[in-house]
Amino acid sequence: MTSLFSLIIGFGALFLLIRTILKYRKGFFDSGETVFWSLVWFTLLTLSIYPGLSNYFAKLLGIDRGVDLVVYISIVVLFFMNFHFYTKIMKQDQDLTKLVRKISKKK
Amino acid sequence: MDKVFVLIPAFNEESSISKVVKDLKKNGYNNILVVDDGSSDNTTAVAEKAGAEVLTHIINRGQGAALQTGMSYLKDKASVVVHFDADGQHDPKQIPRFLKEIKNYDVVLGSRFLDKTTKMPLSKKILLKGAVWVSWAMTGLKLSDTHNGFRALNNKALRKIKLKQDDMGHATEILDEIKINKLKYKEVPVTIKYTSYSMSKGQSVFNSLKILYHNLHHKFIK
Questions:
Q1: Residue B145 domain boundaries
Q2: What is the mean pLDDT of the segment spanning B71-90?
Q3: pLDDT digit string (tens) for B131-172?
Q4: Number of folded domains in chain B?
Q5: What pLDDT does residue B119 have?
Q6: Which pick of A42, B96, B172, B197 has the fewest CB atoms within 10 Å?
Q7: Would you say residue A58 has pLDDT above 60?
Q8: Considering only CB atoms, which chain B residues are within 8 Å of A87?
Q9: From the candidates B33, B36, B58, which should be mutated to test the interface with A, based on the most A CB atoms within 10 A?
Q10: B141 lies within 8 A of chain A by CB
Q11: Contact B161, B177 (CB under 8 A)
C-alpha cells in the first residue's frame, strides 16, 4: 500500500466509523449491527495505519502477502452480503404479495 | 359442494376480458372469478360489467401471484377450479374435457401437443418443447406440454398447491407441487388460438430464460 492510498483508506474508514456511531444514536442501527460495522471499519482503520499487520495475519493463514488476505476476505464478505440482501429482498417480495393478496380480498 | 369456478388472472386485458367472460357465461359457466393483477387500464370495471366477480391487486405481482390469490379465495367455495386465460386463447367449449377427467384426477392439465389442432410458430414450438424438457428435469414429471395456462384442479389440489412463485415460473412450480403432494394428474388435448393480440402478450425468449432462472433459484436456493 502506498502512503497516499493508506491515507484515503484510513480517512474513509474513520468517516464510516463515525457514520455508524451516528446511525446508532439515531436508532437506525441496533447494538449488534453497530458492533459489527464498527469492527469492520476499525479493522480497516488499523490496517491503514499499520499495513504490516495484514502480512502477519496472512503468514499465519499460509498466504504470502497481506494484501492478498485483505482481498480474499473482502470477496468472501461481499458474496456473503450479496446473498444476505438477495434473500432478504426475496422475502420482502413474498411479504408484499401476501399483503396485496390480503387487500384484494378486503375490497 | 359441487361448484365449478373459472379463474382468470388478468393484467391490462380491458380489450379482451369482456368477450372472454361473456363467452364463458354463454357456455353455462356462471361462477367466474377474475383476478385483476394491478392493471393500469379498466380491466376490473369491464370484467365486473361483463358479470364476473373480481379481486383486484393494488399493484402488479405476476400471474402466479394472481392465480394463488384466486385459489386461496376459492378453496372454501369451489369443488373444481378451471384456470383460464384472459386474452381469448382458450375455448370454453373445451372445459367439459377437464370436468370429465377431474372426477378421477386431482389435476387435469391441458396439452397443445396431444393432437395437432393448435397452430403455432416454429419458434414457439421449439421454446415450449425446451420448457417440457426443463420441467421434466426439474420435477420428474414427463408431460407433453408445460406452461399451458388451461388446467383444472379439484378441491384437494386447491388446498395442497401453494404457489410461491409470483411470475410465470408458477407453471413449473405447479408440476413440482403435484409431485410433492402426490396428486393424481392427467393431460387432455386442448386447442390454443394464437392471435396477434395473444402473441403480443406471450413469453419472449428473454422472459423464458428469466423464468428458468427463477425456477432454478426457487428449487435450489430457497
A1: 4-220
A2: 95
A3: 788 877 877 888 888 888 999 999 999 999 999 989 888 888
A4: 1
A5: 76
A6: B96
A7: yes
A8: 221
A9: B58
A10: no
A11: yes
